[in-house]
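Shift notes (night). Ran DUF6164 family protein while the centrifuge was going.
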Amino acid sequence: MAKLLLNLRHVPDDEADDVRAFLDAARIEHYETRPGPFGISAGGIWVRNDADVPEAKRRMAEYQRQRAERVRAEHAQAVRDGTAETFSDIARANPLRVALIVVAIALLLGLMALPAILIGR
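Came back to this:
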């Protein structure tokens, strides 16, 4: 029975490509399901044979460890260079999105405070 190796929700294309490549290189049979049309299912990469699952998981763990090290190093270098993305960069690129998020946070905080305000009366 097939086992899910990687849920593709929020997975960058380069990471999914790397996973496909290391599975192909190891000759581990796999297939991919595509995201559903309504965003309910994100799709995934599945290992076909149960016997291959431990090896696929071992390779996946090693890949994720290496990727995490590489991405952390790249981010640290960007911070040192002053090229890392900051909040002000995000706010300039997507001002409406940031404003809506701030309003949503304020509304949630207000709703959380409402019981205390009502009890205090």
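The first strand starts at residue 3 and ends at 7. The chain has a mean pLDDT of 94.
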